[in-house]
From TrEMBL:
It comes from Erithacus rubecula. It is an enzyme of class 2 (transferase). The gene is Trmt44. PROSITE patterns: ZF_C3H1. This is tRNA (uracil-O(2)-)-methyltransferase. Gene3D superfamilies: Zinc finger, CCCH-type (4.10.1000.10). Its EC number is 2.1.1.211. A zinc finger (C3H1-type) spans 263-293. Keywords: Cytoplasm, Metal-binding, Methyltransferase, S-adenosyl-L-methionine, Transferase, tRNA processing, Zinc, Zinc-finger.
Length: 296
């Protein structure tokens, strides 16, 4: 309804109607096929030649619909807009007001049947012509959707939070000794303490918390994004000890092993730069670069 020149692509997934969960009306069809027919019906009511396609994606729900051309001239846009409004209202007010005929009917015949099923024409004040409000209270999404997973936060801000949280964990406990089962030697490396997300948040200033609360997931998402440094399990934050990480599988083909080696060490090791004891792994075993000379 945004414009006559509008085209659309839709990949139906969850079974929802205009005002809530989609209610099944055809027991002879699968739920998925019935919902696909409903989405097709919406396209026809809106005056589109609806084309169906099956995408090459690893999903059981891969049937898509494309609307590239209209079934009516631009001069009839106001009339079609009234029929669309009537269709939406009928879906809201009457649970059985739907048409489950097979795809292939023309738009005018379908709209005529729809009006008969809906019962009567909507009152004048319920109809909306082109260029007016689509539906009372309807708020479309912005053209550019804001990314709110902490990925768009300034790098300096993220680095500062990571450093503050790491120092908090490191200073919360005395150094712990790590026993290497294979080598049998004791190695003292400060693994820090584990604190709850609430305890960590209590040590951050209000401005930082306010900025994090505007992001989905907040502090927890930021820490999980920085998985090189932190491990978040059951609401507890730990400093990641790379000595305990499982080594990569040696069962990979030679070609894949060579390719992964060539793509190795594309980021600097945070522990080598910031941890008071340095990195717990030697340079040849660490997946991150111990200095810029190791970056590839």
């Amino acid at each position: 309804r945004s414009s006559y020149s509008c085209c659309y692509f839709v990949l139906p997934c969850c079974f929802f109607d205009f005002h809530g969960k989609y209610r099944r009306r055809q027991s002879k069809k699968t739920q998925y096929r019935e919902y696909l027919d409903f989405v097709t019906q919406v396209g026809f009511v809106c005056g589109f030649h609806v084309e169906e396609d099956c995408l090459r994606i690893p999903s059981t729900k891969r049937v898509s619909f494309i609307g590239k051309s209209r079934t009516y001239p631009a001069a009839e846009r106001a009339l079609i807009d009234k029929q669309i409004t009537h269709f939406i209202n009928s879906r809201r007010t009457c649970a059985v007001a739907t048409c489950d005929r097979r795809v292939g009917f023309n738009h005018k015949d379908h709209c005529g049947d729809l009006c008969k099923e809906a019962g009567s024409e909507p009152p004048e004040d319920e109809t909306e012509t082109a260029g007016t409000v689509w539906m009372p209270g309807f708020q479309p999404r912005e053209k550019v959707e804001q990314i709110r997973n902490c990925a768009s936060l300034p790098r300096d801000f993220v680095d500062e939070v990571v450093l503050n949280v790491a120092n908090l964990l490191l200073n919360a406990a005395p150094q712990k000794s790590y026993f290497d089962k294979q080598g049998g030697n004791m190695n003292t490396w400060n693994q820090g303490e584990s604190l709850s997300l609430r305890e960590v948040a209590e040590h951050l200033n209000k401005e930082t918390l306010k900025k994090l609360k505007s992001e989905y997931g907040g502090l927890q998402t930021l820490l999980k994004n920085n998985h090189q440094v932190f491990e978040v399990l059951n609401g507890k934050v730990h400093i990641r000890d790379w000595r305990k990480e499982k080594p990569p599988s040696k069962a990979k083909p030679e070609v894949k092993r060579r390719l992964s080696a060539e793509a190795f060490k594309t980021r600097l090791c945070w522990f080598f730069i910031h941890h008071p004891d340095g990195c717990s792994l030697p340079s040849e075993a660490c997946p991150y670069a111990h200095g810029t000379e190791e970056l590839r």
